[in-house]
Amino acid sequence: MTVLRLAGLVKRFGANPVLRGIDLTVERGERIAILGASGSGKSTLLRCINFMELPDEGRVEFGGQVVGSERDGRRRYAERELTQIRRQVGMVFQHFNLFPHMTALGNVMEGPLTVLGQDRVQAEARGRAELARVGLADKADAYPAHLSGGQKQRVAIARALAMDPALLLFDEPTSALDPALVGEVLGTIRALAEDGRTMLLVTHELGFAYHVASRVLFLADGLIHEQGTPAEVLKEPRQAATRAFIASHKQFSL
Amino acid sequence: MYRWDFAPVAAHLDLLAIGLFNTLRLTGAALAFGVALGLGLALMRLSRRPWAAWPAGLVIEVFRTTPPLVQLFWFYFAAPLVVGVEMTPYLAALVTFSIQSAAFFAEVFRAGIESIERGQWDAARALGMNRGQALRRIVLPQAVKRMIPAFMERAIELMKTTTLVATISYADLLFAANEVSQKTFRPLETYTAVALAYFTVIYGASLLARRIELRLARSGEGTVG
Ligand SMILES: Nc1ncnc2c1ncn2[C@@H]1O[C@H](COP(=O)(O)OP(=O)(O)O)[C@@H](O)[C@H]1O
Ligand SMILES: [Mg+2]
Fold first, then answer.
1. How many CA atoms lie within 13 A of B147 on its CB side?
2. How many domains does chain A have?
3. What structural domains and CATH numbers belong to chain B?
4. How far is CA B161 from CA A225, A242, B204, in A?
């Protein structure tokens, strides 16, 4: 079953063409690692998928439905429709973006409560279950300010999971963490992968991508420059730019 | 050497008490309307639609740049002629100070909302919240905490500014003081007592505000999540 299909996706910021025509099909259960130099448009690609940025050209199909409607040769998006899509796509950010005025449990309950309209009892049960899944059942009442970076990111993952997303987007989820805390977050993501979740993961952790991803994309010049299995892209890259990128990650050893 | 005698003033304590009550009533009501109206103006001004942003900007600038006394006279003397509604002194004062506070609070709200990191909006929208939900649940609760000092400053300023209503014969504390001092021929004692009343209320309110601020600061947030 196809979760997501992008066709000819283009995004510009002013005169800066960040994405120049991305074609991508994501099947259920796929775990796709997205690599690329800083500024190559990885975040923009994820943000176009949940419509935090509106694509300038191209088509996004979500669950078999084309998003938006064509009028005067341009694609128009109704805010209501985009909000519906975002409810089904979870996003985890580099800087966590937890809600500082709510406890860990409050953060995780917020989606079910406000967006899905669940009652408190139901939302709390769901919130506690998701916190337990990421190993933070005992931190339910802690405010974000009192959590470590790794704990914050796991709460953020639980917050996304509480919405039952059909697709999870991770944007460099470990880049803002102390090296000592990277492992616990990667462990959580790996467990989700083993559960069969569909995910797109922007990361610089090539070793993790190698072991967990089912497919690896390398983004450059606003295009998917190279893609394939982790072994193909990471061990025997065909493109010079991919080789140079991987060589620059010296700590990467398989 | 002047001989202080508060007894005649104390005999008219009821007048002063009513004056104080009227001052507090006006200040409280103007603050309440001002906050609600100010939030509305701030949201209009932050709106991407020019037909909403423009009028809000105009109201805010007009009320921030004209003297309060002029505004008060305008609503009391001019509005009945222009709009055809007769205003009691209380109503004229309430309208004036409500809109004036709203103009002030609109800017405080705007600064507060704009001070919230983009990541908070991102996280709210990524969950599937619409703009209103993101504002109500995520952005405003954080912004309001940052606004408390400005809010208190305004409340204090407003309470002092309301003394202007004595000029249109609304029986506030200052108006009562005028009366009492004329009746008792004891202006020094009267105004001393009145100053003490203002001091007590305002100082008490600022102490309370400081405690609320400390309490909120301790509840763990104020740091980026
Ligand atoms: N909101 C924005 N406005 C203008 N330019 C942007 C915006 N977001 C990203 N860009 C630009 O788009 C390019 C790609 O950014 P990004 O997608 O964040 O790259 P990456 O995540 O791969 O580092 C960069 O040149 C960046 O400056
Ligand atoms: Mg990025």
1. 25
2. 1
3. 7-218 (1.10.3720.10)
4. 67, 69, 18
Which residue owns the Cα nearest ligand 1 atom 7?
A13
pLDDT in tens, chain A (254 residues): 899 999 999 999 999 999 999 999 999 999 999 999 999 999 999 999 999 999 999 999 999 899 999 888 788 999 999 999 999 999 999 999 999 999 999 999 999 999 999 999 999 999 999 999 999 999 999 999 999 999 999 999 999 999 999 999 999 999 999 999 999 999 999 999 999 999 999 999 999 999 999 999 999 999 999 999 999 999 999 999 999 999 888 666 55
Task: Determine the structural domain holding residue A229 and report its residue range.
Answer: 2-247
Candidates A241, A254, A250; CA nearest to A212 is A254
ipTM: 0.94
Tell me the DSSP string of B97-124.
HHHHHHHHHHHHHHHHHHTS-HHHHHHH
Residue A237 lies in a domain: yes
Best A83, A88, A97 residue to mutate vs chain B (most B CBs within 10 Å): A97
Taking the centre of ligand 1 as the mean of its atom positions, its distance from the CA of residue A20, in whole angstroms, is 13
**Contact B127/A87, CB-based, under 8 Å?**
yes
Min Cα–Cα distance to chain B from A250, Å: 31
Contact predicate B19/B171, CB 8 Å: yes
Q: Is A254 a member of any domain?
A: no
Can you give the C-alpha Rg of chain A in angstroms? Answer: 18
Give residue A75 CA to ligand 1 midpoint distance, Å.
Answer: 22
In a domain, A228, yes or no: yes
Indicate whether A15 belongs to any domain. Answer: yes
Q: The domain spanning residue A106 has which CATH number? A: 3.40.50.300
